[in-house]
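To: structure subgroup
Subject: Chain for Friday's discussion

All,

I'm putting the inputs and outputs inline so they're searchable in the archive.
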Amino acid sequence: MSDAWIVSGSSMVAAIAVREVAELGFRPLRVSFDAAGQRLSPDGDSTRGPAFALVLDDPAVVPELRKIAAFDGVPLLLVTDVTRLSDVVVHAEVDELLVRPYGRDELRVRVARARGGAGGATADDTLRVGGLVIDLATYQVTRDGELIAFTFMEYELLRFLATHPGRVFTREALLSKVWGYDYYGVARTVDVHVRRVRATLGPAVAERIVTVRSVGYRFEGKEAALPQPAEATAPGPVVDLFGAGDRMTASARRRLPAA
């Protein structure tokens, strides 16, 4: 999973961005820098560079970030309000601009555009499960090397489940996480999309989307252990309870009429 840096002086504003970035499948880390340009990362200890950085509400900081070696080649996205657009024109040299309010789909598209312009996807953007490959940067899915087509919401559902392997999600949770907090749908919507995703994936891969009865769905990311056939065992010895050659059981013998 690729990292995404959140640059903000406000913990409250950063918390919102952390949630939004995590929903895109990235690991959010809130970072800050000292006067010498040394990175401080109170929310994580990753030493690798990020897939992108989200700068919140401070256009003037962007030129300073560009001088820091850690930001070489890192796509920068600036999030601001409409009242501060004039500051953006003066100060910011960013790859993409997001003006509040914006939706999750807009954030996803602008992140993809910014990353494409700054060098594109990395190996961390590719999720491989058996013969299934999900490219998180290009929104493409292949099965055994063959490109397969999904609608946007079908892809989003598959991506979300596949990036949280082993976890069980209720239908209500999937509606919230995949369709969005403001989506007023019914649980049936999830079932219909799961059925379509399974049909598109084909039987061999569709089995990875497991129905948990009375709860919801989970994605099986690991290779399932196939049940091993039981070893054939030789029949046990026949015990003669009443003398050689007599095979009548004790219960049957008790039911015989008295002589």
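Points worth raising on Friday:
The domain at 3-120 is CATH 3.40.50.2300 (Rossmann fold).
The longest strand covers residues 27-33.

D.
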